[in-house]
Amino acid sequence: MKRALVTGGSGVIGAAICRRLAAGGARVTVHANRNLAEAECVVQTIRAAGGAAEAIAFDVTHAEQTSSVLERLLADGPFQIVVNNAGIHADAPMAGMSGEQWRSVVEVSLHGFFNVTRPLLLPMMGTRWGRIISISSVAALRGNRGQANYAAAKAGLHGATRSLALELAPRGVTVNAIAPGIIASPMSAEAFTDAAIATLVPMKRAGQPDEVAALVGFLASDGAGYISGQVIAIDGAMT
Questions:
Q1: Number of H helices, E strands in the chain
Q2: Taking the CB of residue 59, how many other CB atoms lie within 10 A of it?
Q3: pLDDT at 192 over 90
């Protein structure tokens, strides 16, 4: 049974990804930062469906804490699927953006990617099979007002994805990024009316978390073994 780690697994998209990977036969570690109770709920749902899962909480921006937790988890064997889904928003026009707003978003999405992925690479490479998938955003492809910090952090993932894909290709490990557009969630419901979505999205609807999870599930499968170094948009033809 392959092991999978999903950061930000307690959120709407993260939970859908966890369920999909578990349904595909992976033993899933559902990560949360402070919402361990929500991660436990995801675990319970997976187990009720016959899957294998566990919950863990740590701060991906804290390098030493992350390394310590991952070292403990690796005692049970390597992770072969890693989904870097953790991310936060701190939106503001750049003219009024604080240094903390900039740093906090970059630290979670970009530094968090490094802190989580790096310790898992050598054990994964030793198995000669692996899948690293990072959840980016359409904002990194086309920009978005008030999200220079978020777009910059996610765009940084694209460069890291392509570079790491080259490094790991000889070892049977693929590295890809997914850039969702407007995905149905409580957060998007507050930010976008149905009329706004119809204007912004050619398909005239928000995407569903399970649609993002389906793409993750495919990229994590044996069938996607020749796809690497790619940034794949899932945005209803926005880009």
A1: 10, 7
A2: 16
A3: no
